[in-house]
Structures are given as structure tokens and as C-alpha cells.
Amino acid sequence: MARPSSHVNNSFFAAIFAVCLSSFLPIGHAQSISTNTPVPPLQWLNLTNLLHGSGPPPLKDASIGYDPDSRSLLIFGGESQGGFPQSQTYLLNLNTLIWSTPTPPDGLTNTPPPRSAAIGGSDFAASYRHGHVVIGGKDANGQSLSDVWEFDYVNHFWTQVGIPPGGPSRWSASGGIDVTVAFDPTGLPTPNNTFYLAGGVGTNGPAAVSDTWVMKITGTLSSNLANDVSASWTHQPIGSYPAVAGDGGTVIGQQVVAIGGCENTTSVTASCAQQGSWVFNFGRGSSIAPGPCAAPRIGPAVVANMNGASQNFQNQVLVMLGLFNTSLWQDGGNSQKGEVDVLDLQGGSWARVMPAGDPGSGGNPAFPSPREGAAAVSSGTSLVGPSGGYSDTIVFGGRDASGNYLNELWVLRSYNASVSSSGQHWSGFGNGQLQSGAGASGSGVSVQYLTSCVSAIKQPGANRLLSAPILLSAPIPICRSL
Ligand SMILES: *[C@@H]1O[C@H](CO)[C@@H](O)[C@H](O)[C@H]1NC(C)=O
Ligand SMILES: *[C@@H]1O[C@H](CO)[C@@H](O)[C@H](O)[C@H]1NC(C)=O
Ligand SMILES: *[C@@H]1O[C@H](CO)[C@@H](O)[C@H](O)[C@H]1NC(C)=O
Ligand SMILES: *[C@@H]1O[C@H](CO)[C@@H](O)[C@H](O)[C@H]1NC(C)=O
Ligand SMILES: *[C@@H]1O[C@H](CO)[C@@H](O)[C@H](O)[C@H]1NC(C)=O
């Protein structure tokens, strides 16, 4: 719950922030941007209209998963328009684009209690487990949860994972699992998978984003052995970074990437969004905090670049959507036009890229509006449409800047090529006519690189604060940490 002082603190630090930026950092010089990072040709496609059956209502902060065997997209939980956490599970058949709700076997009708802002991901371990794991989240009273559940993609039931007390109880953590990392065959009693968690909001407010944890999961998930999955946590803090809530993140290999959010508060609003980003490498026990460049934001969708056309892509995360206050930050209006930011984990550098849009039937390219808490899942192959030639990220739901909850389903399609300059043509550029729909083949798709970082807008009255005595005693590190 918000502490009474948090609002005061926020505006105080926001004021210092603006002052520091305008007095010590010449805007545009302190930040660096890459304008030739190799990226795949990217295109947004709005599939909302192509879906059938009875799908999820508008949801923010739902859990999302993908099962390549059954070609199912899973949506669980999330917060509804009324602000209430949900406990329903939906499956979208990606071949037929028909939504359904799973029917569990008799006697296996338990479901996780309602929640939003959980972390999770796929737990595939040979024939032992083929499920989607959900870890923690925020309950109906706004409290953090520590329970862990797994949905069986084969027999469509949920089981509660047995886990000793003492682990993290968090919502809005960053983390999950990289499904391309092979399970550990030495796990007992059956092969293990590893999930990672960084930060989040716990019972004592926001935890440091560097409060990092590892969860190993093992056991058998089957309808005749319905209570056999267990897990355990290891606390493995890496580095020392601020407490953050409302960040977005993903896992690449043994690294957790966390982006944006608000510092030192649980009242996550667009106005407190920060430009921070952090990468925690559990293999090495090391961390980096790349410099600011992309827009600050709450609730960004963050995925690994799983496109296989270039080795460079293996170290990239794609940062999409999220919300920030456009009166406080100058982003050139690009967040309205589908901007995708690319963070290279090796160099810690940012690129800001404008993908192609969805021409729809009218030919006027459309992009997803900015939204917080959209759920995203990526694949190294196509998720919808004929296979071959591209890899897809599916983005579902979220809440837009006007507070409307959404059930739109977008694909960020990434064609099988690598480009490194604005407007560059590639082998599939074809006749230059953009295509729409699940089978869009990439014709007409090119990207534009933005050439400057997002900067803070000097706020009226900021200079007046310079003479306020309190500023004279303001700790310099606040300015340096920008
Ligand atoms: C995406 O498609 C849905 C359904 O047709 C529509 O309501 C929505 O406005 C579209 N979004 C944009 C940005 O075009
Ligand atoms: C596998 O996971 C179990 C349950 O968390 C844990 O007790 C065991 O130590 C793990 N084994 C390995 C090899 O990580
Ligand atoms: C959050 O708190 C930490 C520790 O007190 C401080 O160093 C940091 O500047 C604060 N951040 C903001 C944005 O207030
Ligand atoms: C954005 O920031 C401005 C300037 O501080 C403030 O007046 C406005 O209320 C904020 N907008 C939102 C939506 O929070
Ligand atoms: C992508 O392109 C590479 C080289 O151009 C090719 O070897 C590979 O088979 C292609 N992959 C897909 C999924 O089309």
C-alpha cells in the first residue's frame, strides 16, 4: 500500500531530477543512441478482428504463455476494467484463431486464486512436465502472493506447486524463464527447470530490483499424479540498485532484464516513470545498468529478440509500449507510432526503431496505442500464419493512457533478415506494398532508426527551485545517477 509520504517524495525528486538534468547535463549530449544496430525488418499486425470464439475481456497484467506442441496461446488472470484481479484461463488455438476455456478432468478443477502482475513462463521437461508456471502476483486485496501454480497444457488442469516458505512474495517483479535453455537432466526426482525473479513489490513495499532469486522446479505433471510438482527458491542478490515497481522484464539465458517502472513507490503512475534499465547475470553474479535513452515507462512489454537471421539478435531485448507522461518527456511522438526500442545486452546500448504498421483494409498503417501491462510472448518461429520466413511476438491487452483496458491482440512480426539503416530494402521487400493479416509476408516492410534519445522537458518553475535551500543539501549522487 502507498505510504502517505510517497507522493511528496515523488514530486520532490521529480523536481530535482528536472533541475539536475537542465543544469548539469546538456540535453542530448549525455545520452547515446545507436542508429545502426542490426535489427530484423519489423511490422505490427492487428489480429484482434481475426479472432473467434469467446475470448478474454480487456485485461492488464495478465500472464501469457505459448505451447508449440498444441499451438496454444494461454492467457491467465490479469486485472479487469473494474480493477479486479481475475482467475480465468483462456486458450487461443493459433491455427484456427479460436478462443476457448479449458475443461479440466473430473476432480482437477482447482485454479489459482485471482491475481495480476505475476511472473511465469513455460516449464517443458521432456515427458515429465509440459506446462505454464505462474509465480506470485497481486491478489484481490492488493497484497503480494508467494504461491506457485502450473497449468498442464496436455490435460488442461492447474496444480499448486509445493514450495517451502521463505521465498519471495511479489507482484510486478521482472523475470520468468528462457524456453530455449534446455532443462537440467540431473534434477531430482525428475529434470529441473530454472525460473528467475528480480525485485517486485512485497509485503514491505517495493523491493530493490537487485533483490534477485532463483527457483528450481521439478516433479511430474500429469492427471494421474496431480500433486507432484515441487520447487524451491535460492536468494541470490546481485548488485545494489533502487526499489522499483511497474517495471517490465524478461529472461535471456541466465539473465533477467528489467526496464522502467517508478522508484521507491507502489503508486505506479505514468508521471513517475523512470528511464532505468538493469541486467542481472545469474551465471556470472554480475549486473549492468545501461545508460538512459529510450522513453521512461511503466508496464512496458519486454521480450527477447528470438529472430534467427543474425547472431547479433541473441543479445537483444525488444522493449515495446508502456506509458509515460508526455508533458514531462520529449519523445517526438514516436510512442504513438509503434516505436520498438532495442537494448543490446552486451554493449548496453540502445536503438530506437520505428517498425512498419498494419495497412488494414484502408491502406493507412495502424500501430498499437501506448499501453501499460500488455502481456507479450515471443517465439523463434511464426506464431500465426504460414510458417517460414518470420518469427512472431504476440502482445495482448493492457491499459491505455485514458485508462481503458484492452483485449486487442497484436503481432510484432520480425522477418527473417537483418537490416542496419533506415529504409533499407531486404530480400522480401518485394513490390513495396505493405500486407495485413496473419499471413503478411513482409512486402514493403522497412524500419526507421530514430537519431536522438528521449529527454526530459524542462518544467516551468524548475529554476526557481534552484535557489531553494533544500536543494543546496541535495546529494549529488542523485544527479550522477541520471
Ligand atoms: C485493432 O483492431 C480492433 C478490432 O478491429 C480495433 O477495434 C482497433 O481499433 C484496432 N486498433 C488500431 C490501432 O487500429
Ligand atoms: C531440482 O529442484 C529441486 C526442487 O526445487 C531442488 O530441491 C533440487 O536441488 C534441484 N536440483 C538441481 C540439480 O538443481
Ligand atoms: C530511491 O531511494 C534511493 C535510496 O533512498 C535513492 O538513492 C534514490 O535516489 C531514490 N530514487 C528516487 C527516484 O526518488
Ligand atoms: C503530466 O505531468 C504534468 C506536469 O507535471 C501534470 O500537470 C499532468 O497532470 C500529468 N499528467 C498525467 C496524466 O499524470
Ligand atoms: C532465415 O534465413 C537464413 C539465411 O538467410 C536461412 O538459413 C534460414 O533457413 C531462414 N529461416 C527461416 C525460418 O526462414
Concise overview:
The protein has 482 residues and is mostly beta strands. Helices cover 7% and strands 33% of the residues. The chain contains 4 helices and 34 strands.
Highlighted features:
single chain; 7% helix; five-stranded antiparallel β-sheet; binds 2-acetamido-2-deoxy-beta-D-glucopyranose; five-stranded mixed β-sheet; mainly beta; 482 residues; Neuraminidase; globular; 33% strand; disordered C terminus; disordered N terminus; 4 helices
Proportion of strand residues: 25-35%
The CATH topology assignment is: Neuraminidase
Q: In the CATH hierarchy, what is the superfamily?
A: Kelch-type beta propeller
Low-confidence stretches: 1-29, 464-482
> Would you identify the CATH architecture?
6 Propeller
Please give the count of helices: 4
